[in-house]
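Archive record:
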Amino acid sequence: MGRVRTRKICSIDDEVVPQEEIGKGYELTKDELVPVTDEELDEMPLPTAKAIEIVAFVDADSINPIRISDSYYLAIDGQIAAKPYTLLRKALERSDKVAVAKFAWHNRERLGLLRVRDDAIVLHAMRWPDEIRSPDSLKPKDVDLDDEEIERAVQLTDTMALDDISGFRDEYRDALEELIEAKAEGTELPEPAEGEERETGKVVDLMAALNASVKAARESRGEHGDQDATVHTMQPRKKTPAKKKAATARKTTTKTAAGKRTARKTTTKKTAAGKKRSAS
């Protein structure tokens, strides 16, 4: 059994194209392509081409989590960057704010969020506003719910509340590793977990599902899982004034001493390699 390779074929003459002959280009029209070299891209007059530029400081709760993408640890690129790095970290800790930054990544200018975690600065890549899809077309319409169903759902959230989610495991990965190990050793394949298979395409009794979920959650905690869960009347929640969120600061072109931070990005994922950012 051999690996499958991808061969790059020219659409005109159907010939295989070597990697060294492949370049970049911008398609103006279907028949017109403007070639662009790596050297030309590197020489573009962008302050973010080789450094991370801080453009604003905002409250963390002013950032919609849906805009957060991949996360990376930032590390200094040489001892000369140690003091600016530490100064930024201390300032973020004391101000209880996060920094909004711009940086270049994969031939694009990206927006990022800098925050402190375990005495290190983390860069969260962010999506631009026009990259976020509107959920309006996804909202269910004409759904009837009564108070009993809503209160049961609230009770379920209280029953399943946790302060620490570090104990969860990737069960798919565990099962896959067991499968690979069994096939490699020529032993019997793992048996599927006991339990009824989930049926799809049927109308779900929401109240029955919520009752079952509450009962299962109680049993997992050693509580009275053999007893049917009952609905208790809950006191209406007192309305409290909504906390005002700080508006996202507007980008500014004014340069400051703390405007740029030299760092290299190293992914928080153990398997990915970091990309260096040279000193400014």
